[in-house]
Target: TetR family transcriptional regulator
Amino acid sequence: MARGINATGMEQVAEEAPVSKRTLYAHFRTKNELVIAHLQGLARSGATLEGVLAREDVPARERLRRLFEQPARDAAPVRGCPFIDAAAEFPDPESAVHSYAREQKLRMVDLIAALPAELGCREPLALAEQLATLADGAAGRAMVLDDPDYGRHARAAADILLDHALPGDGRV
Model:
């Protein structure tokens, strides 16, 4: 769906799958169902920021910094955050796609907040919101500017926030 959700028809999806439209509709009655299944697959894949946060072999502060890391060199073109993209294409807050994207964004803040809490931050939720805002902004700018390393700017700002919010050096 690199062309955008609304610009991609079910016929195009069926052609690229490759399955018949009949088979596609047997599994997904509506485009909304297909989009949500795609987003759920991304969330489960470990290829989103959630995968970065779940790496228990990496210290908590470093996981937070990796929210702003550039993707692998062989990655597809920079497309921004798929959940923000989906919410933008389904702007009605009551739509199923927009609601799912919102749930994922709220879940991401909870996942982020667990790390500063582990590091002794007194206000982990506030810091998590700030870091999520930086990550979302960096993803959007990286997409618009087609700069996969744009996160370096947000990472520098995140370091300042972490230094200010965490006791000691925050490197537990």
